[in-house]
């Protein structure tokens, strides 16, 4: 959803509902005028803590904070594709949970269906590590046994529900997966006969775990992946492994001078319809599928974090010296830059982490116990929000809209 659509100035007219949703009452909601310096009403920020079980939800529109508890410290957080839930992964404890904002999107408005809480469903895979989401489905690769755990949101609040396990006969490894538009999955494989570090390739399986297409392009050191639904890209030794749902596989070579450096992070910017590859040893590159090459976007060894905004329209690069760079991915040009936080030592264990909406960047600062909300149109406007002792993970949930029912 484009912000220009949602942020039209609303006059003082009351907007009456013409259709009904479950549990709606007869109260007509008046949507307030939009403040350009204010976040959307239905955006939520979630953080976990490195040393405690603290789980904090922020509503940036009014600055309110809800303090909850995760099961264990330092849980990993990932927003689901629908925006309503966050996947909460406890790798060492073999547990996956889902946090529910209580927000339900209906295309032209949001309903508040409940209070923020954990959903009923859980996953108990062995070392759940790599998370992906598509539509209403969540997927987790379990490194400890090479299985996938799958869940549909319709089952999230079913009492006693467990994530479905797909066993594709994979060896345990630090793996990854994608889901294609045709319903099949691409999963990394480990070849025990190889003397090279794995994973060593990608095969395609169906929803039952049966092999549809074997790996046809052996490689090594696969790490990081993204898909547009038709093409799946994996960082690998020597370049980017491209696997299509039509069973084709090829390698896009690394730029000259990369040597043994591998792009360990692959991103897909949905709004801009572009793939990006990132390594902290070289920088950020756009991936040209048609030209079969990687092109430099920003080359530096001082990048601390590299993240897409919520809609996949802009790329935010946070440097160790505290500088934030924002790239417009449609043009590939630097849109704005400036120093927004203090410098961070490269040796710090828990470094600041960043996420962004269309209008704001959110940086969790473990050393300060705060989340800083930075207005992207004016980097001098920073709102500091206390969350917990050491916030180490952050996710953006909800919807970039003010429309209610």
From TrEMBL:
InterPro entries, per database record: Quino_amine_DH_bsu (IPR011044)
Cited SUPFAM superfamilies: YVTN repeat-like/Quinoprotein amine dehydrogenase
UniProt keywords, alphabetically: Signal
Signal peptide range in chain numbering: 1-22
Domain of life: Bacteria
Protein name per UniProt: DUF4394 domain-containing protein
Organism (species): Adhaeribacter swui
């Amino acid at each position: 959803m484009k912000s220009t659509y949602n942020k039209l100035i609303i006059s003082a007219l009351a907007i009456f509902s013409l259709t009904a949703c479950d549990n709606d009452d007869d109260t007509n909601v008046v949507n307030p005028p939009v403040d350009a310096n204010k976040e959307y009403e239905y955006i939520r920020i979630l953080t976990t803590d490195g040393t405690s079980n603290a789980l904090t939800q922020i509503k940036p529109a009014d600055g309110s904070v809800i303090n909850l508890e995760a099961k264990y410290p330092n849980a990993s957080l990932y927003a689901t594709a629908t925006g309503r839930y966050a996947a909460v992964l406890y790798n060492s404890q073999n547990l996956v949970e889902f946090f529910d904002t209580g927000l339900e999107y209906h295309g032209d408005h949001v309903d508040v269906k409940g209070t923020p809480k954990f959903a009923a469903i859980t996953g108990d895979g062995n070392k759940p590590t790599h998370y992906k989401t598509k539509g209403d489905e969540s997927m987790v690769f379990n490194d400890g046994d090479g299985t996938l755990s799958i869940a549909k949101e319709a089952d999230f609040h079913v009492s006693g529900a467990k994530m479905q396990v797909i066993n594709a006969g994979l060896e345990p490894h630090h793996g990854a997966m994608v889901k294609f538009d045709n319903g099949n999955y691409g999963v990394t494989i480990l070849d025990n006969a190889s003397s090279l570090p794995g994973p060593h390739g990608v095969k395609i399986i169906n929803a039952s775990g049966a092999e549809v297409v074997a790996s046809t392009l052996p490689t090594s050191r696969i790490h990081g992946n993204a898909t547009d639904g038709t093409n799946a890209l994996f960082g690998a030794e020597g370049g980017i492994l491209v696997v299509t749902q039509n069973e084709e596989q090829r390698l896009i070579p690394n730029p000259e001078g990369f040597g043994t450096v591998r792009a360990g992070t692959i991103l897909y910017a949905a709004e801009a319809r572009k793939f990006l590859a990132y390594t902290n040893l070289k920088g950020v590159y756009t991936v040209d599928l048609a030209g079969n090459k990687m092109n430099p976007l920003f080359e530096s060894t001082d990048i601390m974090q590299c993240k897409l905004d919520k809609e996949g329209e802009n790329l935010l690069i946070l440097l160790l010296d505290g500088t934030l760079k924002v790239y417009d991915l449609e043009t590939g040009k630097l849109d704005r830059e400036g120093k927004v936080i203090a410098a961070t030592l490269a040796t710090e264990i828990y470094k600041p982490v960043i996420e962004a909406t269309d209008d704001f960047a959110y940086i969790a600062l473990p050393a300060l116990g705060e989340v800083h909300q930075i207005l992207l149109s004016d980097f001098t406007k920073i709102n500091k929000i206390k969350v917990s002792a050491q916030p180490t993970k952050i996710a953006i949930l909800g919807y970039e809209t003010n429309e209610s029912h």
